[in-house]
Amino acid sequence: MKISCLIIDCMDAYATQILLVDDEPVFRGITEIMLRQQGYVVACAASGEEARRLLRSDHFDAVLLDLILPDCDGMDLAGELSRLHPYTAVIILTGMASIDSAVRSMRFGISDYLHKPCAPAELTRVIDRAVENKSLKRELIESRRKFQQLADATWEGIVFFGQDGIIQTNRQLAEMFGYAEDELPGRDLADLFEHWRARVLMRLPGGQTGAVALEMVARHKSGGKFLVEARVKATDDGAFVAAVRDISERKQAERRALRMEERLRGAERMENIGLMVGGVAHDLNNILTSIVTYPELLMLDLPEGDKYHHDLEEIRAAGQQAAAIVADLLTVARGATTAREPRQLNQIIEEARGSIEMRVLRKDYPQLRFTFRLADDLPRLLVSELHIRQSFLNLLRNSAEASRGLGEIVVTTGRRLLKRGRALYEKIPPGEYAILSIEDEGEGIAPADLPRIFEPFYSKKEMGRSGTGLGLAIVINTMRDHRGYVDVVSSERGSRFTLYFPVAAIAEERMADEVGCAVTPPRGQGEVVLVVDDDQQQLAIVSSILQRLGYKAFQADTSERAMSLLNSRPVDMIILDKWMEEGVNGFDVFKRIKTVRPDQRVVMASGYLSPEDLAMAERLGIGHCLAKPFSMNSLATVIQDELRKPQ
After folding, report:
1. pLDDT above 90 coverage of the chain, percent
2. CA distance linking residue 469 with residue 337, whole number of Å
3. Angle at CA 201, nearest 5°, toward 199 and 205?
């Protein structure tokens, strides 16, 4: 019995220690059970004072903190935790989310900011990332401490010399250079140090009393080279003395510390981006829905060829581009993905060739030739079409800019079987791959820049004229999400990016149904649609669209009004927002609706749908999920598709 307890204690010692601070007992209990099932060690507190007591007695890797506690403001407690426990990740987990609280969280150095309820997969991913980032910070500080100890304790060699060469050395210097002590007297110091005369002797005329400190490249007896730091000074008898320290290990430690610091800065930057984007994506996409949809409504009233038709189309396209930027930020910061579907690379490329982005690219670079060599034997892949398409267009845009609008860009697809792993830009293991290659005749990528091209915001382009700086970051995150690899070959004659997608068996034999965008949106026949959203602007725009499409629209800006209206009369369809009034989640409202109307048809809409949201919708039986901003066509098509489904 004692042995088994000891084993459990040892296992717990290596598990992530979580403190859950929340005054709601049901939520606290459910979350504690879920975290324990995921392998975390969990302690709970129902108040700020109880949390402080636990933090005084135990160490925690992360604290999940509600904003509203019975005895204190959760944000004040978060600031206190950041000061007193700098290596503990603090994650806000609240149903009272706002942009203001998200901004305050950034000022306090909070690791992340999540809405209740949060999907288990998303919560565990955020916890693991936050703990890892805090661990990086702790390792960096420890590395600096060790580096300082190394610098202070480095063994120094001493050499006395004059115009005729070395006079005397100590044993440490002889060992440093690989000589016996009696081999060094009489030797020229130029045998031991590169550029000795130019860098040292010319700066130490006779009689100078000051010391010169400099770094030099030293030569070992075996022929190897290493870095040293030398402090050289004239002596009273006209000779010189130098204290020499081997700094090779110190320089390596500096480089390691610099790399770790860069990783930490990158991780903190992604934390801040994820914090802000996750907090504002829903609200921003609500606004963009109006920008995308109102032009569509206006164009319906204009005759074809009207002079304002083009201007309205440009406004709509600008709204869609803004929404794409928000999606790109979510991809990089949160790893957000859409649903996976069996698709061929050729299908995605052909659809991208007819896109607005491709038309703009051809307009911007009219002299650039695009050649497509698409293999006809590609397998289907289970992919996120949105992100593959965006990655392809990002690479095309990069190649066009590198080519300065001249020459040819060649797009190639094919199959490749690697019997052995290959060390290319990345190490690619053996296996069968579908590949997508984009090759240009541009000026190439500088060797110094090549290792960093996939870092977010690392760009040599002019700020404000060449996108967001996230183009290649989207590519690498997409490939990581698909367990794929990237190869990059570049020279002054051009660059070639090759994406390797692992070929995996797909169980489905038919392609997933796709929701298309018809030229003329399908119309209703007077069906009753209830729009449930806490945003008045969203209620107005969606209701206006529905009325133009031939539906009768009713509105509810709270979950309680929605349930009251549903109890008073039947409706054919409900458009339900994922985020309702404070503390209310659309999935919970859906469950309440199903208890009253088990056969009720519901479409979920949101400004931010994570992979976990899509999985939750599928488990609950929600037929369609609409990502805001949505167009009139997509809304009309989804409603008709849902209405045609058998009960």
Report:
1. 18
2. 20
3. 130
